[in-house]
Amino acid sequence: MTKSPQKTAQPFLKWAGGKSQLLSQFENLYPLELKQGQIQHYIEPFIGGGAVFFEVAQKYQIASASIYDINPELILVYQVIQKDVERLIEEVGNLARDYHQCPLTERKCFYFKLRDRYNLQKQEIGDRQYDSHWVSRAALLIFLNRTCFNGLFRLNSKGEFNVPPGSYKNPKILDADNLRSVSELLQIAEIAVGDFELCEPAIKPGTLIYFDPPYRPLSKTANFTSYSTFTFCDRQQTRLAQFFRHLDTTHDVKMMLSNSDPKNEDPTDDFFEELYQPFKIHRVSANRAINSNGKKRGQIDELVITNY
């Protein structure tokens, strides 16, 4: 059973590795139970830009969701949108107005000024209770995301946002209607900072879990895992696979997981085939969005692993 096919809430951040382009292919890979209305709860331990959550929550009959990410700055924005969207819209609107009023020659300076402000006010948020001061921080992050180079979220070793400005003449910084739609959708969700293993207590009868971890790099020069101060190396990929197997043997839960396909670069690389045996491995086609060499951007395969 599906709801109306008309979707309103869309990802509010540009996000490297976002799944919007893959949703039509994912439709064929979702469990039948989701389409029949038997899945009532949705869990996503690496929420990122949230494209799959927005799709599933609006198209199917889920009643509740639990979303997590190890990146506290990202979760902060989700919580602000859920709890205080009108103040957020006002603050993002103010930043957008000031940016667009700047002469083109001064916009880089304006961007760096706000990036410095964002980094200087960095604070420990973790498990702290919601704070109204988070609104201005969330507004800064949305502004930086919509005006930085390629919409990347990247942190240096000090945990500072270090993406340079993009070259945009008229970027759409504020989409108030979409933020309101996202806020309405997030009312069904529990949102928390945490490692992916935190999701296990949230499993209920009729649960779908979608894992979208930082992808394993296709080459030594393609490593882009710094969405937080935590790295996601092969050891972490192995830990995730062990957790996937653990959930499959201890819970009646449907699971779907995305990752890169090493065979794009090395046809003999069986890393994921060995790691996720005997689960089903599907391949979908995606556009490579991040590569310093423009000639190496194009269609590549990505993996989708399911336990059904």
Sequence stretches where pLDDT stays below 50 over 5 or more residues: none
The strand count comes to 7
Q: How many helices?
A: 9
Order of helices and strands: HHEHEHHHHEEHEHEE
Strand sequence of the main sheet, in spatial order?
A: 3-2-1-4-5-7-6
The fraction of residues in strands falls at 5-15%
**Overall domain count:** 2
* Major beta sheet summary: 7 strands, mixed
**Helix content percent band:** 25-40%
CATH class of the largest domain: Alpha Beta
* Rg over C-alpha atoms, rounded to the nearest angstrom: 19 Å
> What would the CATH topology of the largest domain be?
Rossmann fold
CATH architecture of the largest domain: 3-Layer(aba) Sandwich
| N→C terminal distance | 19 Å
Structural class: alpha/beta
- Average predicted local confidence, pLDDT: 90
CATH level 4 superfamily of the largest domain: Vaccinia Virus protein VP39
Query: What gross morphology would you assign?
Result: globular
